[in-house]
Amino acid sequence: MADQYKDLELVNNIEDQRFELQVEGETAFIEYRPASDHYTLIHTEVPESLGGKGVGTAIIEKALYYLEQHQLKLIPLCPFVLVYLKRHPEWKRILAPGVKNI
């Protein structure tokens, strides 16, 4: 994660079922569906003005840390999250049982 995003707070917007990151007055987010022991990450969206600046990577990393800290497992459906996991296989440690082909 780029240094300029490390201190930004990840917001868990429970009402809208998404993690949010405020950057330069814009909101990047990852939509999720919660369950008792896991979250399914469905869609990541980064405003066009923030594209290519590492914001997508930052919000994914922060969301994965959140899941791990809350002892939740991950079901990744979002293509962007899947690509991230292929590049960072160490995060497979939080995958829900039965998740394969990553």
Automatic annotation (TrEMBL):
The protein's matches in InterPro entries, at most eight in alphabetical order, are given as: Acyl_CoA_acyltransferase, Gcn5-rel_NAT, GNAT_YJDJ
Q: Which residues form the N-acetyltransferase domain?
A: 11-96
Q: Which domain of life is it from?
A: Bacteria
**What is the name listed in the Swiss-Prot or TrEMBL entry for this protein?**
GNAT family N-acetyltransferase
